[in-house]
C-alpha cells in the first residue's frame, strides 16, 4: 500500500486490489475491504476509538470514530457523520476526520462527553490511569469539561468474574471488546453482555465463572479500567514501569511478550504485538506465570554436600568439588538439560558434554520419550529452518489440519488460537485423532476420529483424503505410542501433507537444534555420521568427538541405578515430569556423583552433590526457537539478581576448571558459535520405521497435560492456579456402566492410586479412561497414554 | 374519486367469529392464495412491485423491491419474517388486525413466502398480547388442517411452515435486524449492515422482514390487481392503509383510508377534539416522528406530505394532545420510553437517553437553568444521526420538534414546574369526566 | 411527574441466585426440548423456552437458565444475557395475576400515571412488587399497542381498555379476591403462569373466547358503513393514471 504523494498514484495505476481514497485531502491507496479507520492510520491519522480492535469483528458500538464523508465514492456524501470502524473504503471516497472536519470533531467531542456521563472519573485510583484510552482520548478528542451535572449510574464495586479477573462495571464503556474476544477469539463465552439500555453491563453467570485459558487478554484490550487482574491490581502505575520485549518461556508457541518491571521486580506481562506469531494475544500461563522465582526455594548460593549434608559454599569451592567429582567419573557422565534453556544454554550443554566430558549422553527430554522419537527428531525436525517449516501463517492458509496426539488448547494455546481463527475466517477443517471431542476441539469444530491410545497410527492410515494442502500437527506425547511417529512421517511422505512437531516446552526445538540428544550433534548432524562429527569437531577445534551414540535420559537414570553410569549433570529436570519418576530418583540416588544446575530446590538438588544456582530467564539474554523454528529474543529484564551466573557461565567455569575451553561464556558468544556452525547439509537419517504395537487389552489410560497444572512454572501465582480446570476421569457411558462407575473413581497403575470425579463423556471411545497427566496432583500415576490401568468405583462417602 | 374510508383489511373485523377460518373463507379468504400459487413466484413479486406497496411498519420501503433483493441463486434457505412486534408508541393497528382476522395475515404470509421461495416463515409477535397470540396460533393450526400450510399446499407441490413466535418485551426488536437476533435466541440488538437481511439475515440466509399490515395487504393486491391498489392514494403513496387515532379526541380508533387523508378529515371523522379543548400537537406516525401542530391539519398524511412538513409518516399513529397537555411532560415521557427501550449497544443512545431524561426532569420540575434549552438541543445534536440504529433518532426527534414548536414552554421550565402550568389532572380522561 | 429515576443498581446483572427453588421436572425438560426442536436452529427457541420456564417457576429461575443452556449447548452467561434483556422475564416470582399499567406518554397523560398510583395504594405495594399473598404483582408498562383504548392496563397480558379509577379498583379487588375476571378484548383470565405457557407455544384452547375487536378498532368501519364508503371495485384504475377522474 502506498502513502506516497499524488504523483505516484497518478503515474502508476493502482494494483487491482487497491482502492484509492482521499483522507483529509491526502490520497492513499489501501487494499480493498480496508476499514476507513485503518486507512486513516496509514496516513498517520489516529481517529479515536474504543470498540474497534483490528483482530475483532467490527461492531460499531461506541460511535467514537465518527468522520465526515462528503463523497462515498459515488459522488454522493453522507448527510451525517459515519463510524469509520465499520465502513470499508471505496474508490474515490472522500473522508474528513477530526483534523479537517468541524462536524467530525464535534461528533467526537460529543461522544466523549456522552461516554463520560456514566464514568466514575476515578482515574487517580484506577490501574488503567496513565495508559487508558478513555483518559487519553478524553484529553485529545474530548471537551475539557463536562456539562453533565446529573446522577451517574452506580453499581456495587468490583465483582470477580473469575479467580483472576475482576470487573468494575462503573468504569465500563460497553465496547464489548471483552465479550467479543471471548466469543470470537478464544471461544469461551462465559462472559456476555447482560441487562439492557443504561443498565447494560458485562456479566458472567455466578455458578460458571469466566473459564478461559486466555482471560488475561480481556484485561489488556479493555480500553478503560473496567477489567483488572488479581495479579496486577494496585501493583504499579504504568508510568513507573520499564518495559522489555521478551519471548515467553512457558511453551513452544514462541509468544512475544512485554514484561514490565519496577524496582527490579516484574510486575506484569502483556501480550506483545507479533502478527507472525501470537498476533496480540497470550495465554494466561504466559501472562501470569512469572512468579515462579519468587519463593523461598530459590537457590541463591552454590551448595556442596559435606558429610551427607548440602551446605552453602563459595563458588570456587563448589567448582572444585564439581570438577573433582566429574573428573573421577571420566566420560561416564550423563547430561540432562530439561526444557527451560535458551538455544544458547542448550548449545552450551551439548558442547560441554561432547567437548569437555567426552560423552554423547545428553538428552533434553525430561518427559516420556522414546528412541523412535529420537530418530524422528533427527530425520524430520532437526536442521530445519523457519523457511522450510510449517508456520502459523501456513496453519491459517491450510485446507485441512490433522491433530495427532496433540491437544492445541492445552499443549500449545497460541496454535489453538490460530487454528480457531482459520476455522472461523477461512473455513479450515480440523480433524483430531483423540479419545473424545475435547472442549478445545469443539471450539475448533473439529472432526473427531475417536481413537484409543495406540490406535492413532491406524486411524491416521484411515484418513484417505490428505494432500499437499494438509498440515499434520503431531504432539510430543506421540513418543509414547510405539510406531506412531513412524506412521506420521510415512503418511506425510506418502500424501505430500506437511508435517510439524509441536513440543510443549519453549526450549525443546532449540535443544534439538543445539544437539541435546544422544544421537544428534548441533545443526541436525547425526553422531553416527563421521563426516558430521568431523564437521563439528573442527568447528570446536577438537581432534575428534565421541563416536558412540550416548544414553537417553531414561537410559542414564537406569544406568546410574545399575552403577553403569557414574555421574549426572542435571539442569531443569523435574522427576515428576518423567514417565517413571521413581526410576529417575533411584538413578539420582545411586549415581556416584550428581551436579545440579538449578534455579530452585528440587528433588534433584536434594540428591545432588553439588548444586549451582542458575539465573532465571528474566535474568539472562538469548533466543528460543519456537515450533516453527522461529527465533524469539530473550532479554534481560532484571539486572539486580541474587546470582548473576547463567547456565552458560557455570558450564564455562566448570570447563575452565577442568582444563578445557568451552569457547564461550556469554549468550552472544554462544550464539555466534552456534550460528557459525550452522545446519548440516549432509544426508539425514531415514525416518524411523517402527511397527505399531498391538493394542493393549483391557482398560488403558489416555491423557495429556493441561495448560494450567501444578507445574513449577505456575508457582506463586495463586489466582492463575485457581483458574485451572478441575481434574476429572473421563469415560464413555458404556465403560462407566461396565465398570459400575458413578460419581467418583479410583484409578490405579503401578501401585499408585488416585481418586477422581468421573465425567461420563459423549463420543468417547470405550475401554479408555482419560486423565489429566498433570504433575503434582497428589502422587502422579506412573502412566503414559496407552498404559494399562484399573479403575474402580468409589462410593461418594468413601471418596470424600 | 375514492371514498373517504376504504376498509379492506378491517372490513371483516366486525363479523362474528371473524378470526375463524370458516368465516374467513366465507368472505373470499384464501382465494388469492390459489391465484398466487397459479402464478410464477417472480410474477407475484412483480405484481406487488407494480402495486407500489410500501412497507407499513414505518420506513416505507417498497415491499416488492425488498422481495426482489433476495438472491435466488443463494444456496441457503430463504426465510420470511413478519414483524408483528408492534411497539411504537401510538401504534395500534397490527394488534387488532391479528386479533380479528389473523387469517388475512396467514394468507399474506403464504403468498409472500411463495413469492420469495421461502419454505419457513415466522410471525414474530410481541409477547405482551396474549389473546392475539392465541388467535395467531389457532389460525396457523387451522391453515395446516385445511392444507394451506405444510407439505404440498393445495396440491401445488409448494411447502411452507409458519412458526408463531412470541417476543419477550423489547421495543428494539421492531428494528428488523434486532428482531433477527432476537429470533435467533439472542439479545435483540441491531446488527451491522451490510450485509443486509435480504442477503444474510436469519441464520445468515436470505431473509425478508415485512410488517404485518404490509403482508396482510398482499392478498387483496393479488385478488384485485395492482391497478386497483393504485386507484387509492397517490403515485408515490399508493393504496389504502390504517390510520390509528388516539388521545384527546372524542372518539379514538382505527380508520382505513386511502393514503393521503388529512388530519383535519380524521379529526372530523372522530368527532373532533374533546369538548372545550383545542388541538395542541400530534405525532403523525408514532412518537419517533417529529410532532406537528394545527398548522399541519391539511397536510396529506402520506410519505411526501409528511416529509414536506419536516416529519415522517411512520406508522400512521396519530397521538393527539389537547391544550391541557404539558409538552415538557409529554416529551419527558417519550424520552423515558426511549431510555427504557434503548438496547444499550451504542453510546449516544444509551448514555444520551440517560442524560436527556434527567435534564428533562429538571424542565418538568421547573428547576432547569438558563441556557438549558440550548444545552438540550446541543446534546440532541450529539445523539441524533450518531447512533447505531434509528431508535435514538426517534428519541431526539420528539425533543427537537417539541422545542421547535414550543420553545417558550421549555423556557418556563427555568422557573415553573410543568404541573403548575398544566395541571396534570386536566389532561386525564376521568378528571375531565368528573368536570362535566 | 415521573419520579421513578433510579441510578443505583445493587442487584442488576443476573437473575436472583439467592432463590434456587425450582419446579422444573422431566416433563418440563421434555417440553423445552420440544420447543428447541420446532425451529431450524434450536437456539431460536430460547425466548419461548424462557417463557416456559416462567410458566413453571413463576420467574426465570437459576435452574431454568441452566437447563436452557444445557439443551441449547450455549453458556449460562449467554442465556443470562438474554433473560435479563427482555422485560417480560421476571427475576422474582410474579403474582398469580400480573398487572401492568401503561405509563408511556399518551396513557400517562390521559390518566395512566394516576392509575398506577392508585393501584399501588390499593394493593399496598410498589411497582415491581408482589402482594404478600402472592396474588397480584404490579409493574409500569411501556406502550402496549392499544393507544386508542387509553388509558390501558394489562392483566396477564390481556387487555383492560379505557380504564378509570373505579374500574381499576374493581379490577384489582376482583383479582385479590380471586374472582373470575374477563378481559373486554380477550378471554377469561387464567393466571400469569398459564399465560406464559401459551406464549411459550402451548395453546390453552381459549382463542375462541372474547370478541373480534373492541369498539375503537371498529370505529372507522362503522363510519364507512354509515356513509356507504368502501374500497373501489376490483377493476378500478390507478389514481395517477386518471387525474381527471379524481376531480
Description:
The complex is a heterotrimer of chains A (800), B (436) and C (247). Chain A is α/β, with parallel strands linked by helices. Chain A is globular. Chain A starts with 5 loop residues before the first helix and ends with a helix. The model of chain A is unreliable at 1-10 (pLDDT under 50). Chain B has 436 residues and is α/β, with parallel strands linked by helices. In chain B, 44% of the residues lie in helices and 12% in strands. Chain B is built from 20 helices and eight strands. Chain B has a four-stranded parallel β-sheet with strand order 3-2-1-4, with helices on both faces. In chain B, a hairpin with a 5-residue loop joins strand 5 (240-247) and strand 6. In chain B, helix 2 (31-37) crosses helix 10 (212-224) and helix 15 runs parallel beside helix 17 (391-411). The relative contact order of chain B is 0.12. Chain C has two domains: 11-93, Orthogonal Bundle (Arc Repressor Mutant, subunit A), CATH 1.10.10.1590; 97-192, 3-Layer(aba) Sandwich (Glutaredoxin). Chain C is built from eight helices and five strands, in the order ααααβαββββααα. Chain C has helices spanning 26-37, 46-57, 62-72, 76-83, 105-123, 165-176, 192-200, 215-226, and strands at residues 97-102, 129-130, 136-141, 153-155, 158-160. In chain C, strands 2-3-1-4-5 form a five-stranded mixed β-sheet. In chain C, a hairpin with a 5-residue loop joins strand 2 and strand 3. In chain C, helix 2 (46-57) runs antiparallel to helix 3 (62-72), helix 3 (62-72) crosses helix 4 (76-83) and helix 5 crosses helix 6 (165-176). Residues 242-247 of chain C have low confidence and may be disordered. The interface between B and C is large, with 121 and 99 residues.
What descriptive keywords fit this protein?
heterotrimer, A: 800 residues, alpha/beta, five-stranded mixed sheet, disordered N terminus, B: 436 residues, four-stranded parallel sheet, four-stranded mixed sheet, 12% strand, globular, disordered C terminus
